Amino acid sequence: MPTVHTRELSATPNLTMLFGKAVLTGFTRHGSSLPSTVYSRDLVVDPGHLAAYNKVCGFRLTDELPVTYPHILGFPLQVKLMTDGDFPFPLVGSVHLANRITQHRPVRAEEALSLKVHVDNLRDHAKGKQFDMVTEVTVDGEVVWDSVSTYLRRGGGTGGSSEKEIVVRQPRAVWRVPEDIGRRYAEVSGDRNPIHTHALTAKLFGFPRAIAHGMWTKARCMAAFEGRLPDAYTVDVRFKLPVLLPAKVGFVATQQHGWQFELFDARRGKPHLSGVIS
Questions:
Q1: Stretches in the chain below the pLDDT threshold 50
Q2: Mind spelling out the 3-state secondary structure of the chain?
Q3: Domain check: are 132 and 252 in the same one?
Q4: Which of 66, 113, 160, 181 lies at a CB distance of 3.0 to 4.6 Å from 59, suitable for a disulfide?
Q5: Are residues 140 and 181 in the same domain?
Q6: Are residue 49 and residue 143 in the same domain, yes or no?
Q7: Which pTM does this prediction carry?
Q8: What tens digit of pLDDT does each residue of 170-201 get?
């Protein structure tokens, strides 16, 4: 079993520098194992930043963190781990397949948080390799929030069906997603991947237009549940076809032993996201 190396950071990593490093080193990465590094960081939430995030994602202003907010606190630690020299896959081109968040109790905005991030569970996928970025938030030693983000690195997969399910749905709500939502979410999340910010740069990576961040679509869906969820729950989503900006999307949710919800193209029914709250 590999030795775990915990590295405590005194400041949030500079994402601009890390993304630059990712571009420069992406073509030199190779390997067959994940690093054992754990990055940790202590912090207190900036109220102004929290308010900006809430506005972009559709949450109300309260004294509690939205369930998706700690993800962006841990995101710089994830990027640092994925741009370290011993990480086997390039950051650019990695696909966010899924995200599972468990809120063990509400987290208040004024609490002192301790974050830890590590990578785990390298395994085969029909289109390549997948792995999990694990983030944990504690307060005074108590785990209050954790998440698992599953990423795919394409290439050398086992093959399999790539068919996309298209179902005619009746939305409970229709949302217009503006063309600039990628840039606005990039400002609050730090995720300035060019596929999200401008149509011209998105075309360089094979997209006809800029696409919305997957974690923005999850956050926007969770904003629709405000006031209807218990203090502790798990929300698990699968990201499907990207949201091409601007867009008109349909949202539907059904309650049975928890909640099931979907986000889809309001005109064509193509699926963007499916989720379960339990």
A1: 163
A2: CCCCEEEEECCCCCHHHHHHHHHHHHHHCCCCCCCCEEEEEEEECCHHHHHHHHHHHCCCCCCECCCCHHHHHHHHHHHHHHHCCCCCCCCCCCEEEEEEEEECCCCECCCEEEEEEEEEEEEEECCEEEEEEEEEEEECCEEEEEEEEEEEEECCCCCCCCCCCCCCCCCCEEEEECCCHHHHHHHHHCCCCHHHHCHHHHHHCCCCCCECCHHHHHHHHHHCCCCCCCCCEEEEEEECCCCECCEEEEEEEEECCCEEEEEEECCCCCEEEEEEEC
A3: no
A4: 66
A5: no
A6: yes
A7: 0.93
A8: 888 999 999 999 999 999 999 988 899 999 99
